[in-house]
């Protein structure tokens, strides 16, 4: 069975009502979480959270709007690679770094993991790779965060073995088995929030857990099908797909057999 270790790698501030309609204008803290996945004696990372590179590449030009819209609080000592080092885990111990999507708060630390292969959706990378200027900003993509050699080692989820999911994971029925995990980690598309947005079902000793990334920003969204603010639609890749995904998470929650974890559960 697989194990999951949670890391908080910085956080941003934003009005609660953006994430959850009716939550009010109180400014809330939204942590950027990354996960260490361990299965079959191997290790993978899920996203990176923030890093010093985020401040560097949003310090000028149009990308300053990104950091002004979502003020970031990050301490260099909390960089993911430093947190891992304190646990005795170095780069050569990591099989791959899985990117849930290409928003800056999920990829800011990629440059700290040079030599570690990245894993993502081919759809997400194809949409993001040529974005620049305002088009990139609108999709919360900061091109400078991508290492120069990224494309030399990236692996695409869609090329992995496609497998049928256990009935207890309904309404999800198909996924892509992470190579080397013996199907204890299965990647699944969770479209809507961002191009190529993905999650992962992880089989742990306590049962299946879905890492749902940014498919919601509060458990109340999938538990009660409460929507975010309409203003949040402006930064979504596909609004209709987002709500279809949210509906599937609601069905999964009602089934009561899977724990759902989100990247940015804030203090709403």
> Main beta sheet: strand number and arrangement?
7 strands, mixed
- The averaged pLDDT comes out at 96
What is the CATH architecture term?
A: 4-Layer Sandwich
Shape: globular
Approximate strand percentage: 25-35%
Instruction: Order the strands across the largest sheet as they lie in space.
Output: 4-1-2-3-5-6-7
Radius of gyration using CA atoms only:
17 Å
Poorly predicted ranges: none
Number of helices: 10
Number of domains: 1
CATH class: Alpha Beta
Helix content: 25-40%
N- and C-termini, Cα separation: 33 Å
Structure description:
The relative contact order is 0.18. The strands form two sheets. The protein has a seven-stranded mixed sheet with strand order 4-1-2-3-5-6-7. Strands 8-9-10-11-12-13 form a six-stranded mixed sheet, covered by helices on one side. The radius of gyration is 17 Å and the shape is globular. The chain is 25% helix and 26% strand. The mean pLDDT is 96. A hairpin with a 2-residue loop joins strand 11 (198-204) and strand 12. It is of the alpha/beta class and 268 residues long. The protein has a single domain (3-261), classed as Metallo-beta-lactamase, Chain A, CATH 3.60.15. It has helices spanning 16-19, 52-57, 64-69, 80-86, 104-107, 122-128, 133-138, 150-153, 219-224, 239-255, and strands spanning 3-15, 27-39, 42-46, 72-73, 96-98, 118-120, 155-156, 162-164, 174-177, 185-189, 198-204, 207-211, 258-261. The longest helix has 17 residues, at 239-255.
């Amino acid at each position: 069975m697989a194990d999951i270790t949670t890391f908080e790698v910085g956080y941003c501030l934003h009005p609660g009502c953006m994430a959850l309609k009716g939550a009010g204008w109180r400014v809330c803290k939204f942590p950027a979480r990354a996960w260490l996945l361990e299965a079959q004696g191997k290790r993978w990372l899920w996203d990176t959270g923030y890093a010093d590179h985020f401040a560097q590449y949003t310090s000028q030009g149009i990308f300053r709007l990104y950091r002004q819209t979502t003020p970031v609080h990050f301490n260099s000592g909390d960089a993911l690679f430093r947190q891992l080092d304190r646990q005795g885990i170095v780069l050569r111990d990591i099989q791959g770094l899985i990117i849930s999507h290409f928003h800056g708060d999920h990829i800011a630390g990629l440059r700290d993991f040079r030599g570690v292969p990245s894993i993502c959706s081919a759809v997400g990378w194809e949409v993001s790779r040529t974005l620049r200027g305002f088009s990139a900003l609108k999709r919360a993509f900061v091109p400078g965060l991508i290492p120069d050699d990224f494309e030399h080692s990236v692996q695409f989820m869609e090329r992995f073995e496609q497998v049928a999911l256990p009935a207890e994971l309904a309404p999800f029925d198909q996924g892509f088995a992470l190579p080397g995990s013996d199907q204890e980690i299965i990647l699944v598309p969770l479209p809507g929030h961002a191009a190529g947005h993905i999650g992962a079902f992880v089989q742990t000793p306590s049962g299946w857990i879905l890492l749902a990334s940014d498919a919601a920003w509060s458990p109340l969204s999938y538990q009660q099908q409460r929507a975010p603010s309409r203003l949040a639609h402006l930064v979504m890749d596909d609004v209709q797909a987002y709500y279809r995904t949210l509906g599937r998470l609601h069905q999964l929650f009602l089934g009561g057999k899977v724990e759902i974890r989100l990247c940015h559960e804030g203090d709403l």
